[in-house]
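User: Could you walk me through two proteins back to back? I'd like the raw sequence and the structure tokens for each, with a short line separating them so I can tell where one ends and the next begins.

Assistant: Of course. Protein one, sequence then structure:
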Amino acid sequence: MKTYKTKKESAGFTLIELMITVAIVGILAAIALPAYNQYIARGKRAEARAAILQAEGWLERFYTENNTYTTATGTNATFNSRYSSVPSLGAANYSITLVVTAASFTITTAPLGSMSGDKCGSYLKTNVGSLAIGGGATAPLADCIK
């Protein structure tokens, strides 16, 4: 009787199986990474808008106490000590500036660092309560306040 040797089963993956897996992971990463970056940018924009609202509240309280937005000692110095960048600790994503007169103010956030090329540009808030975008904004306001 003749005995035939059978082929031994190999353990592991073939190169084709490995390359298919790498391709699938690459496609998923190509879809997921831009969506994740947009999500992070949206969170940073929300943080900037929250800082503007907080600064606006401070200015309104200041006006209530002093009947003016500016004083001889200077509102800008006090404002800048409280609200100069967003976030206040770590790498800044937005800088906050104040232009003030006795009866009006404009708070502006300018994108910095990782947000410098953001489609929403800068945010502007005035004493009449209007929120606008400017400074290189390429997206409509509705997309920037989500």
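----
Protein two, same layout:
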Amino acid sequence: MRQRFFIIVVLLSPATLRASEVNVDSWSLSSLIHAHGVGFAGDGTGAVANPFHKVDHAALPSPGGATSTVDAEYSASWSGDNFIFLIEMTHAAAGNPLSLVTRSSANIWIVPEVDSTLRIDAEYNYALGPGIRTALMETTIFQENASTGEVFIYGYQEYAVTLGDPPVGQFTLDSPDIPLPAGSRYLLGYR
């Protein structure tokens, strides 16, 4: 099973945006392979930097004698015009489909200091092997609320299962413009 996933998250402001007007509080970026009875391998980071660039690689001998791999390349920057987060991932999973998972995911906390607009563009191409296998693309946005916790703002999910869907396909997301009022803390997530 081979999967390629590209995601671009762009945060734009209707007014002139300075670097100090979008703060990335924290993030957790990870790519992992988990095979029941074998173990797991992963790579990732929690270190925020501007600009940011990192390449992750993880490999794990999987049930059936093959090796599964996850590769992810992250680039991020925020400047006077926008906040851009770009990721390109390649997953190659091999082995028993009932006991093997490969995944890339992130939680990114941001605080815009001016009213802003978020847009997510993503493309996920998958080619699933025989057996029971699933391809999934999911993005979510939550707003932090001091009294009620996290409040859901936007979500997208699409998946395919080899039992009922073609083993080869593509998911695409061109989100609407999502307003993010200034001063709140937002959680941007994907997997």
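The chain is about 0% helix and 70% strand.

Let me know if you want the two compared in more detail.
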